[in-house]
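User: Structure tokens for this complex, please. No commentary.
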Amino acid sequence: MNIAIVGSTGAVGQELRQLLHERSFPVTGVRFFSSPRSAGKQVDFGGTSVTVEALPEDGNLGAELVFSSAGGSVAKAHARAWAEHGALVVDNTSAWRMDPNTPLVVPEVNADAIDTHAGIIANPNCSTILALMALAPLHRAFGLTRATVATYQAVSGAGAKGLDELTRMTRAALDGTPAEPEVFEHSVAFNLFSHDSDVGEDGYNVEERKLLLESRKILGVPDLAVSATCVRVPTYRAHAEAIHAAFERPVSDDEARAVLASAPGVTLVDDRAGNRFPMPLDASGQDNVLVGRIREDASLPGGIALFLAGDQIRKGAALNAVQIAEAWLERGRPGGR
Amino acid sequence: MNIAIVGSTGAVGQELRQLLHERSFPVTGVRFFSSPRSAGKQVDFGGTSVTVEALPEDGNLGAELVFSSAGGSVAKAHARAWAEHGALVVDNTSAWRMDPNTPLVVPEVNADAIDTHAGIIANPNCSTILALMALAPLHRAFGLTRATVATYQAVSGAGAKGLDELTRMTRAALDGTPAEPEVFEHSVAFNLFSHDSDVGEDGYNVEERKLLLESRKILGVPDLAVSATCVRVPTYRAHAEAIHAAFERPVSDDEARAVLASAPGVTLVDDRAGNRFPMPLDASGQDNVLVGRIREDASLPGGIALFLAGDQIRKGAALNAVQIAEAWLERGRPGGR
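Assistant:
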């Protein structure tokens, strides 16, 4: 299969290249695209050096499968054209997620939605993917009605430049030298702050709204209630989330644990005696989402509280996109043009 | 007034010395006590050098007011004896908090409880104090019934050695040199983890249980439901908390904001357009607790969500203790032996 990656030099683009190679994705040819600024650069694909190209104006990427990871405005403007030239576009951006004709897919949750695509399949927001890896199996078993989520989001959500900024600002803070934030509004060194996305009239920011709207679409529960507080913390790659969930019927912690223990893509890390639970450092570089602190909600009888950590670049972005492509192949390359 | 500080060389002890001087507390004499290891050390009190003493065995600290900040086991063993020698003991540890004869006080919330002390007044857990600075005014206005709290707790909760460990581990991580955690179980460098306190059979750890039980006692609501997830994050001094609260009647965000805007010890930081909300860096060194992200709870009609940050060493510990002593003086030094 001829594949293309648009946005191939960023943090997610780099992870996509690595994952396609690692997972022996059936690749016959690759084309890597980027902004004109990075065009001409050499990047690695499984030990081979590949020259990065600028996007062609006609929208013909010469690929059957396009991973789109260059930002929402690029995807909004061009993804339809790429699809019209015969590609399935797996879009990592927010551009098409809420489009009614575009499936929004976490393969462990709603792989069947792939069958009805119209050229584009959207990869959900990172926080949403990670939350649903735990909430979707519980939903299938008990019927999720509402959830509150407090996130601890790594700087990788802002890409490679977010990673660099955490290093630069932290080093300056330790050395006592002045440094100004460039990627984030506020210093990320030994600090944390409300997510760097616009805040709406209801007081929720865009990231929090994604958690609500995307969860509803993926789970197929239009009246699902999700209230999130999204916070950026000084960690590199992996997000964590503290979640309280309520269901159609009371759920015991043993029932919840049994469901999560057999959930695909989930690793239980729930050692109460050893005080070992999901941590970003442990989740970094892992495919699975780590879930623990599973307990009955002391404030809501019948509800469940839990804590999770998952690699934002991997399952929160690149891995989920590759898994969408893998599921599309397994399902016989359905739909599309 | 002759005062004593037990545990005078730790992070909270140092802050207590500074605050007593800064706030012109009516001090005629000071005695600073510490572990035998630190005895003989010179510490500063308002520009004067004072020699730290080992605790006398007879329990007579020669003080009318004792700030106890040397750990729960010391307070458990000796606070009663200090009080029997005529001192009011303001205890920063967890030793006496749930004792039915010991008031547990946040002066802005329940200063009247001071009048019924029996020699000891307990200073609440840091996370509880900060949460109640926002929740108590809302409770008075609307009747709090339940709350979920996710914390983002600074390393200062583990004292001066916690602060040192964050610096040491972070520097090692940046330099790529090996380093082992000593204070915490896990690396705190660019990582976060479930609070380092024992986990009970119900899955809640000791810190989370404090938030439940101490809130009930301070607010005088025995059936208050509080479910907390307490998490240690790589920040130095100030804790943050994401809170969802439900009340006896539906509350609008305007009503909640109006109450919090006039709440003593609270500074509203709720700039939606500028995306500026409470941050640990802004809260560090401040007396007031910063509160923002005030919005109606999208998952619980009538409920309120908010985010706060407060200096753990200051309002979370030393400042609240000094304020208890100040309130005791203002109320005419009630009770006691």
